[in-house]
Amino acid sequence: MVTCILDKLTGQSDRHELSTENTDVEMSKNKDLPECKHQTEFRRFKVPPVDPKIWDKVNYVLLFIGYFRSGHSLVSSLLDAHPNIVISDENHVLRMWRTLPEERKTRNHLFRTIYEQSYKQAVVGQRSTKNCYPSVNYKYQVPNQYQGRFDKFIQVIGDKQGPLTVKVLEYHSNGKYLLSQMKQATKIPFKFIHVVRNPFDIVATQVLRDMSWRISNKERERFFQNQYNDSKDIQYIKAKQHVQLTKGVMNLIKLYGDDVISVYSEDMINDPRKELKRLCQFLSVSCSENYLKDCASIVFGSPSKSRNAIVWKDRTKKMLTDLISKTPMLQRYKFNED
Asked: What is the spatial distance between Cα 287 and Cα 282, in angstroms, rounded to a whole number?
């Protein structure tokens, strides 16, 4: 049984640890964990209860707004590694809130759900060394830091689900009312992170991932070695969706103003320390050198240019080019970049 030690209750430590006593799960950077047999292990994983007093020092609730395949997962995983930040991965908190009975629409229920998801991600999810997500090539485990746990107290808690948050807030009739309900229940200000990436790379990545699920494993190596000719014009559908999402995001940025910060995915990859410092300042949390160093250690390589992996159709290319030209925040991008 996995046990979680809550420091203030035990009096043994000021540090909230992940304990994996009597299980095959071990939070050690020096030891690889056995692979999960199936993803049901993640879904069924039991998280020990926590004392509701740990929410008392939360200053902000954090949500992500944005697009599919934009780099949200990296940013949220790095923030979850901060000793005083807890970020769950795709917990769909607005959708969850909409379906809750009134008696469960409380601060404790919302925060506990977020915390449990963060905890599971760190123990058996894609922020752990366990391979519960064999289809995910990039692992988001930050060594030596606090994914799935915290040090003494939590200052920021939230969830990463960019596109769905935009759809609920901007395109559902009661979306903003759901957010106001959450604000009223928590009595804590909300902030938003908007992760930006070249629209051509976003759409191309969606097309490639969509098609990769439709082919056999034997075909995948050949598939990714050649430029993909999108005969079904999936790119046009994805591009239209992206344009709609972008319009929604711009409306939300205008509405929430200084409570939104935009982070360019390429900047985070090229200089993670600088971008994380900026995020910590936005969230009013301290940012230690060890935290920055350990986060930067898992960010490597250069930004992926997925746009070069597919054959573009003229109408899709024009649609995204027009979107970039009409959106000031995107005007740093173009199809042919140096």
From this structure: 11
